[in-house]
Every structure is written in structure tokens, then in C-alpha cells.
Amino acid sequence: MNMRTDRYAGVLIVVGNRDDRRVLFDAFDGAEFEAIYTARDVAQAQGLLAQEPALSLIFVEFLDPYAEAEGLCRLLASHPRWRLIPRIGILPRGASPAGSKGGPDAPVAAWLPSPVDAGEAVRMAHELLAGDGAAVVAAGDWLEALDAPSVVVDVEKDHIAAANAKACALFKRPLEKLLEASASELIGELPAVREESLGLGEARIDANGDPRLVGLACMRFNGDSARLVMLTAGPGADSPLELLAGLARSGQDGQAVQPVLKRLIADYGLDFFYVCAERGGNEAEPQVLAALPRAAQGALYPVWETELYKRVLAGSEYAAGQDAAAHLGEALFTQLRLASVVGVPLYGEGHHAMGALIAGSRRTQPRARELLSVARLIGSHLAMQALIARYRSDSRFQGLHDSLTRLPNRLLFNDRLQTAIAEAGRSGEQFAVLFVDLDRFKTINDSLGHSIGDQVLNAVAKRLRLSVRASDTVARYAGDEFTLVLRHIVQRDDVMRIADKIVRVLETPLTLSDGRELQITASIGIAFYPDDGKDGELLLKHADVAMYSAKGLGRNTYQAYVAVPEESHRQRLDLETKLRVAERNGELRAYYQPQMDARSEDIIGMEALIRWEHPELGLISPGFFIPIAEDTGLIVPIGEWIMRTACRDAKRWIERFQLPLRVGVNLSALQLRQPNLVEVVESALRESGLEGQYLDLEVTESINIKDIPNLMELLGQLRELGCHIAIDDFGTGQSSLDYIKRFPADRIKIDQTFVRNIGVDPADEAIVRATINMAQNMDRVVVAEGVETEDHLKFLRDHGCQELQGYLFCRPLPAASFENLLNERARLITEIQDG
């Protein structure tokens, strides 16, 4: 990557298109950046941003309709932590151009077309980041306006970052030479810049014994990536530095900025100072953010009715050091006898001014140009405050989020729950609903007060959010009740692990604002879709029932919902009856999830998965009907059906696409006990014409050799057919190393519960590393299941995992959709070969 060798903070890539996301990840995954964060959508991005990562650059994909991406960019532009971070928008092929009718309108620094070109993305990032552009732009205008030699010094890098013409004359060097100079050699010993010194400091810096630069102020620019020191000299030149330092200290605190405004008014002798922000809509009068003076009985002077205000609001700046009232010819300024007036538009986001700052004095203003530059910076700061205040009071946001914790409220949670139900109904997936209730919270509120109670609720909200993935939903449902939706669940044990983690995280002592420690606990109820209900109301009801079961066990624990025995038995018998005729009625479906080469990310195989699509019940979760099939013995004919189907499909695709695709088929413990299993596999291979080397037979690690005495001999016979053997769900069983060593396996599949915790749980990361190392030493291929994020991918690649499977690449697909995926792959390869 052709960028400066400086270390930048992270890059956030909010892109749904996987190819573009991969191109950007590879382009910026280098020594220049501390971390790469990726999100598939705005919701996942908001989850990442809630963790407040350090960022230097943000990419956002805009998909029509653009409301979500536009809203994210406006939030970033108005947020004190993110507003100076450069944002690059990505437009899909064929989309309306930015700013055109039908195109997106959002505060981004630049636009890239999709498919993204890595070189162009790097070049654009270089332009935005090179030379700490945000800092120099912010400082340059007002530096030139100062009546004294002035420079900006980057203390950490020991160089001059910006300078005005008077500084060039003082040091007798042109600007380009001055910017190449060592700051310490040019000026003398530089002061240390500490976190607590982000304000005005008193310092006299000598260069060869000659005091030249005597004013000092410290500020941050461009987020956290640069700390710069501004030095100047000359009578009155300390004032703008103090004002800017005061702004740096005030952040977005409306009260903290008031002393800065008072200092501005006093230092420049202002008799008139109004800052107005347009409200939008049909409201005629703007919001007045600052007003000096006021008319009788505290009334405001209607500066927004003047022609000057309208000109400034349209984007024009104005500065007159003398005879301003006469020049403007407006009654208000004549009435106030203003000799000097400046006006600057306020820009919060986009290209249109959102308000105006008008200031004036009854005396002439010799520093009008300087005042204009300082007013521009202060006005921009006030505009940001106004935007944030608007965002926080936005009726839609308030209507969908809890005002205390900022989590989704009951209304938004129910909406997301319905969305999860609709998507799971289409895909046949299961998900979990968790009901979290704080134990004895009323006692905390009554004995320690509501302010402590609020601290507890905020802490719980943050801990819950950090305990789950960004794609999951955490909401404050009511009072001390929180609800969660955990998506993409394959096994119930995954949810139990998360619930156990939440219990442990919440019981960690909380340090209150007054230094006291408080221990809180929670009881958690769990309900699964579709097993425990197919509508939101029933799922929440059952999660609530399970939560009270947890409280009955002594609190500080979790429980899954258990149906009333009679009801459960009746449902099971009914489903068993339907399952017995499912194959005969053509209700079984084969789904395929691709397996990828970890280096090339090309498709090298697929796992065959069974789905049941009932004409009345729809797609039924495998987590629900597979246990019934195993208990009743139906897993044997169902397993044979999926094996024959998978072999036929694999043979067809291998011949059509000329790809050596392997297909994985699971063997249950009951199938392994069947005396004719070898004949069944041989028959499936013979009838389909598939060679045995393309069939992977997956056996779970938990299968005990004592339960199947001839297991090793049986697996040896299957390998003689040319089939490969894979140990599935590795890490969840209790196998000894000697057992694994003797087991005739070609592949080891790391269970997804460990892979999903990469970057979250160091213990699970250690298990993954150990499994990869062990498999390599035994000359076994390693397959990682449950790969969902770019961080998972990078970790597994770095540690030598050869094959990958998970939602990062593709969810399980029906046979027709999987064939379309192979068609698209073939088309792309043809395009590349044709040049």
C-alpha cells in the first residue's frame, strides 16, 4: 500500500457486497493501520461503533434506498468522536450519481464506484490522510489571518505542519523549506504534550537564546491520530489560541463552551454576537444558540430577518472592519450603531449552511480578518453541538430507543423479532430469544436511589452489548428487563454458552461513580424459534416463563423453556407422524453450504445438509426434527436419502463445471451401527457415478468407540471405497489424543462454537490454535466451521487453517441456488480469462 509509513488507527468498512468488502480488506490490511473492522450492514456497524474503536478512515456502501447509509453518515458527521474521520462512499453499479436526483445525499469526502478498484481506494485514502490533512485545513486559514509569525508544530514527529507567511519571513525560508525543517532545531526544545495539557499552557521557547515564539496552545485534530502544538508571538495573538484551546477542552458540552464565547466577546470587544441554526420544515424563526445583547424584556433582535443573515445563510462570508452599518444599509445594524460586522455560515454536514454567526462592534475592528477566521471555527463547533442535540431529540430515534441506555426499546425489539421470524421462516434456521431480568433491582433502587439504579442499568446495557455479536439485538424491554435475539444458531449449546457468559459477565462487581462497588446478578430465560413458538408473543412468553424458572432455582442462572409434558408429547407425536411420510411425499430438501480454500477463497467443496419443508408448517428446523429422527430410527432412511441425493448433485456439478468438488455427508451414530452401511455408501456411489474420493463422510467426535465396537474397521472399509473421513464438531467431545491419533480421519472440522469466539474469548482462540497445530502434526487437513467475520478469516489464515465454511462466504443454499453460485463463479473466471 503506497502510503506514508505512519501508523494509523483502524479502518471501518461498512459494505454489504462481499467482493468489495474483500478488496478493501486486502488493500488496507497492512502495517499502516492498527486494525480493520468490517460490517455487512448499518446495524452491525452501529454495534462496532458502540465499542468506540479508534478509527482513521471509514467506508460506507450506499444501497438504494439510501436512508440507512445516509443516516449513518450524518450520525458520524455530527458525533464528536467521529466527525473528523474521513468517510468514503461506495455506489453500486448503475446507481444514480451522488447529489443527482435519486442519488444519495450524505456527508462523505469522496465516492468510489462498485466494483471497487483497490488502487483507486488506496489513492483516495492517501489523499485524505496524507499530511494530517484535517489538521492543516483546520489551522491554515486562521494562521494566515494572525498578525504575528505563527506555526503549527507536530511534537510527536518533530516537524512543522503548517505556517503563515509572517513565519516564513521570520525564519527567512520559503514555506516548502520550512515544512521540511526539524521543529526542535528550528525553534528549540519542544514541550511535552500530555493528555491533561490539552488547553492553554504558559511557555517561552528560545531558539539560540532569542525569544521568538511565546504563545502555546495544544489541540487535537483528525480524531486521536495527531496532537499538534500551535505557537505564535506578538501582541494580542494569544487570544485566538486560548479560544481554540478552550474549544478543544469543551468538547460537545453546551455549558463548557460558554466561557469560550465570553472570552471571544471580551477579547474582540464585541457588542453584538448572535448564532442561529435553522430548524427546517415550515418554522420561520431559527433556533438561537447564542444572543448578545437582547432587546427590552429579554426579546431577541431578529437578525435572521436581515439581508446580511440571508446572504450568509446562502454561503457568503462577510467582514467589514469599519463603516459596516453604512455599508450594509440595514435598520438593525444602524439601530445598534455597529461600525464593524463579520458573518460566517455554519456548516454541520453536506454543502448547505444550517445557520449563521453574526458578530459586530460599535468600534472599528482592526483584527476583522482574524476574527472572521476564529468565528468560522467557533461557529462550526456550535453547529456540531446543535446537530447532536437535534439527533438526540429526533422523534424517530426517541420513539425507537430507550432514553437512558440508548438501546432499542420494546417497539423496535418487537419489529426486529418479527424480521428474524420472517427470515428464519424462509431459511429454515433457528434463533433464540433471551429474557434477562435483574435480581433484586427494586432493592437497589429503593435503598441507593434512582441515580444509582440508572448507573446499574447503563452498565448492564453495555455489558450485554459486549457479550454478543454485532448482528444480534439487545433491547431494554421495560424497567430492569432486557431482551435479546441471537441469530444464526445451529446448536442449542451455542446459546447456552452465551447465556452462561452473560451470567458471569453481569456478576462482575460494578464500580459506581462514587467509588463504591456493587454486585448485581440476573436470571435469564431462553426460548428457541421454532421449537418454543412461531410468533413473537409466544416466544417472549416462553422466555419469560423460563426466566422465572431460573429465579426459582436461586437466581443468577439461566434456563431454557420446557413445554408442559402433555403438550410437548402431543406435538412430538404429531411431528413424528408427519416425518414418517416426508420422504415419500417429496418434502425433504438437500441444502449445500460451500467450503472454501483459505488462501484462494475458491469453492473446493460443500457440506450437504437436510431440510424438511412441510406443505403446512413450512421449513422445519433441523434442530427440531433431527433429534426425533434419531430417537425413532427415521434418521437411517433420511440419512440414506441425503447421501444418494448429495452424490447425484456432486457428480452433476463436477462434470458440468469441471471442478473437483468434494461433498460432505454426516453419518449419525445410528447409521454407523447399521450392518449394511458400507453397501449403502457403495450403492450411492455406483448409482450416481461419483468417485469415492469426492465423498467426505463426517462423524462427530462425541461418538464413542465403546458404543460401536467395530467403528475403526467400518471406517477403514469406507476409506477402501475411496471416501474420506472427517471428524465433525471437533473440540466438543472428550476424545483423548491417542483416540484421535488412531482414528482414521483425513479431516478435522473445528466446531463453530470455538471459531465464533475468535477475537472474543482467548481460551477458545487457544483451542483453535492447538487444534490446527495438532492436525498439522498428524498430517490432517483442518476445516473451520462458523466463519462469520473478516477477523475470523484473518486469524484462521494466519494460523494455517486450510479450509473454511461459514456465513462470511455463504449460507446453506438449496441445490438450484448452489448451482447458480457455481454458474456465477464460472462466468467471472471466463471474464477474467477473456481479459
Brief account:
The protein has about 850 residues and is α/β, with parallel strands linked by helices.
Describe the structure in your own words.
By secondary structure, the chain is of the alpha/beta class. Helix content is 42%, strand content 22%. The protein is built from 31 helices and 32 strands. The strands form six sheets. It has an eight-stranded mixed β-barrel with strand order 23-24-26-27-28-29-30-31. A hairpin with a 4-residue loop joins strand 9 (210-221) and strand 10. The two termini are 25 Å apart.
Task: Please render the helix and strand layout as text.
Elements: E1 10-14, H1 18-28, E2 36-39, H2 42-49, E3 55-61, H3 67-78, E4 87-91, E5 110-113, H4 118-129, H5 133-145, E6 150-154, E7 159-163, H6 165-171, H7 175-178, H8 183-187, E8 200-207, E9 210-221, E10 226-232, H9 238-250, H10 258-267, E11 272-277, E12 287-292, H11 307-313, E13 318-320, H12 324-328, H13 331-335, E14 340-346, E15 355-361, H14 368-393, H15 395-400, H16 410-427, E16 430-438, H17 441-448, H18 450-467, E17 473-478, E18 481-489, H19 492-506, E19 510-511, E20 517-518, E21 522-529, H20 536-552, E22 558-560, H21 565-580, E23 588-597, E24 603-614, E25 618-620, H22 622-632, H23 635-657, E26 662-667, H24 669-672, H25 677-688, E27 695-700, H26 711-720, E28 724-730, H27 737-742, E29 747-750, H28 752-755, H29 762-777, E30 781-784, H30 790-798, E31 803-804, E32 813-814, H31 815-834
Parallel strand pairs: 1-2, 1-3, 3-4, 4-5, 21-22, 24-26, 26-27, 27-28, 28-29, 29-30, 30-31
Antiparallel strand pairs: 6-7, 6-10, 8-9, 9-10, 11-12, 11-15, 13-14, 14-15, 16-18, 16-21, 17-18, 19-20, 23-24, 23-31, 23-32, 24-25
